[in-house]
Amino acid sequence: MEITNTDFSRSLNEMTVSLRPFALKLTKDSEDANDLLQETMLKAFTNREKFAEGTNLKAWLYTIMKNTFITNYQRLVRKNTFIDTTDNLHYINSYNTATYNLAYSTFANEDIERAVASIDEAYRVPFIMHFRGFKYHEIADKLRIPIGTVKNRIHIARKELKDKLSIYANN
Question: Which residues form the RNA polymerase sigma factor 70 region 4 type domain (predicted)?
């Protein structure tokens, strides 16, 4: 004797109590568990002809629920996955990851060296010594000039360099 739709529906309804905890375990959310349970029951009822009478209905429903959950999860992951189909992928966010070569600094260094070389030797020598880490009194002793003169010459050298290298003032 074949099972009727009414009997099958009653059997499904009796199984909801034991399937709900499994749905909660999978989804970790009460509303999602209710949705999963409802979807499982709908699939079971629409596919009732695939159920072989005399087999374990509970195991069949658990399998449907587990497969439904996995399918929904995979669909969600695909939906939230961003796929970029642009042709020029290397341009995306390139302003954040720009790599600068040393050309700019090479030009700047050459300009600085030329500017320093063009300063009168009386100002250039104390300036270079100070730049290399000598203290004012050490420069004064080495060049045999007063410390005030050393400070004045370094100040003048800096001022000349600032004027000669004004192109780099805002960089």
Answer: 110-161
The letter for the amino acid at 131 is F
Full set of structural domains in the chain with CATH: 5-79 (1.10.1740.10), 108-168 (1.10.10.10)
Q: Can you give the pLDDT at residue 25? A: 93
Integer Cα distance of 27 and 115 in angstroms? 72
Mean pLDDT per 10-residue run, the chain (171 residues)?
77 90 93 94 90 87 93 84 60 54 73 91 94 93 95 95 85 58
Contacts of 18 (CB under 8 A, 6+ apart): 58
Q: End-to-end CA distance of the chain, in Å?
A: 91
Q: Dihedrals φ, ψ of 81, to 5°?
A: -90, 125
CA distance 1 to 54: 11
pLDDT at 148: 95
Tell me which residue of 114, 121, 125, 98 sits closest to 161, measured CA to CA: 114
pLDDT score recorded for residue 76: 84
Torsion sign over Cα 98, 99, 103, 106: positive
CA distance 138 to 71: 80
